[in-house]
Specification:
The protein is α+β, with helices and mostly antiparallel strands and 169 residues long. The protein contains six helices and seven strands, in the order αβαββαββααββα. It is globular. It comes from Halodesulfurarchaeum formicicum.
């Protein structure tokens, strides 16, 4: 089986200059959690996922050090506290980043396959621990022809009983 036989052909994309706010809104209205990002000519330039968007609101180091003053005869002590994602002021971060172009947060190094690629290659890509890929754009001459998700592969395997397309006895 080849990639073009399993891919979803009608792929929703976002433009590289769409704002973070626009993409967040679009993502909240769709049943999937990522979009290929295309340039003005429609060529693939990146991919943006929920994880990319969460990263702009979540500091890489979530430990805050707070100096606590003790009586004058003791040295100040630093206490580390772990801030949960819910404790961050998301509205301020959203306001700060909502107008930024999505190209500032997208992943530029996109793993892709061609339409004639064997589905085994797609499965290998989706099964790798690093990078953690959940969807593989199917690209021809720089243009997105389709997309294959982990769910697409699992559904196919469940329906056919294997990669060969025939159910096992």
């Amino acid at each position: 089986m080849q990639a073009h036989e399993l891919m979803t052909a009608d792929v929703e994309t976002v433009q590289h200059d769409d704002s973070v706010g626009e993409v967040l809104k679009k993502m909240s209205q769709r049943p999937f959690n990522g979009f290929p990002v295309v340039d003005d000519d429609g060529r693939l330039v990146g991919i943006v996922t929920q994880r990319d968007l969460v990263n702009i609101f979540e500091p890489s180091d979530r430990t805050f050090w707070i100096p606590v003053g003790l009586p004058p005869f003791l040295e100040p002590v630093d206490y580390a506290i772990e801030a949960s994602f819910g404790d961050l002021d998301l509205e301020i971060d959203l306001a700060r980043h909502a107008g930024d172009p999505i190209s500032t947060v997208m992943t530029e190094d996109v793993v892709t396959v061609g339409p004639e690629e064997d589905i085994e290659t797609v499965i290998e890509i989706l099964a790798r621990p690093e990078p953690n890929v959940n969807r593989v754009p199917v690209v021809q001459d720089g243009f997105v022809e389709g997309i294959i998700t982990r769910q697409d592969v699992l559904t196919h395997l469940h329906q056919t009983g294997g990669l060969g397309g025939e159910s096992e006895p």
